[in-house]
């Protein structure tokens, strides 16, 4: 009886082992699933904060200048404070001189007005002996090469002239209706100095930027 029981247990063990082996061979292998998590950047402790760039604001060169305003002809502009009003006739007195300024006997600033249509306007340069006309249709001068159109917000033209002692920059500004012309003349004259060989003259450059001044010019009527 004991022998039979042992035999039965042996058969059951072999059968169970066979069943387990068959299940292992027939079931698919389960692979582990890997989930990729996005990388998280953690701020470093005590990380320095990036400095914002410093933007330098452009300096207004005309901030301390004086203002000249002409109610009769309807325009205004700024000029350097070192220039003071004077009673000179002006370097180009053909048109009506409405203001003259100067300083140090070497620097002069004149403002003149031609009260009429630009079609009838003539710019005359006594030192060069020339008379120049402006064509309002083509917006060109005759001769064209002597006049430079200034790149600013208003319509303005630059003419340069002078002699061995003084040099002038003439700015010609027609109003938008072409019914009035403003002339601004900035003149510098050479400084007389004594040298071992006698008297001599040293050229004097203009002490302000014409474009800076013109940036303040505007018609007010």
Textual characterization of the structure:
The termini are far apart. With 221 residues, this protein is mainly β. Strands 3-4-5-12-11-10-9 form a seven-stranded antiparallel sheet, with no helix packed on it. The mean pLDDT is 83. Strand 9 and strand 10 form a beta hairpin. 14% of the residues lie in helices and 36% in strands. It has a domain of 151 residues: Protein Transport Mog1p, Chain A (3-Layer(aba) Sandwich), CATH 3.40.1000.
Could you provide a short overview of the structure?
The protein has helices spanning 2-26, 210-214; strands at 66-70, 75-79, 84-85, 96-103, 107-114, 122-125, 130-135, 140-142, 148-149, 157-162, 166-174, 181-189, 191-195, 198-202, 218-219. The protein has 221 residues and is mostly beta strands. It has a domain at 66-216: Protein Transport Mog1p, Chain A (3-Layer(aba) Sandwich).
Outline the secondary-structure elements.
Elements: H1 2-26, E1 66-70, E2 75-79, E3 84-85, E4 96-103, E5 107-114, E6 122-125, E7 130-135, E8 140-142, E9 148-149, E10 157-162, E11 166-174, E12 181-189, E13 191-195, E14 198-202, H2 210-214, E15 218-219
Antiparallel strand pairs: 1-2, 2-15, 3-4, 4-5, 5-12, 6-7, 7-8, 9-10, 10-11, 11-12, 13-14
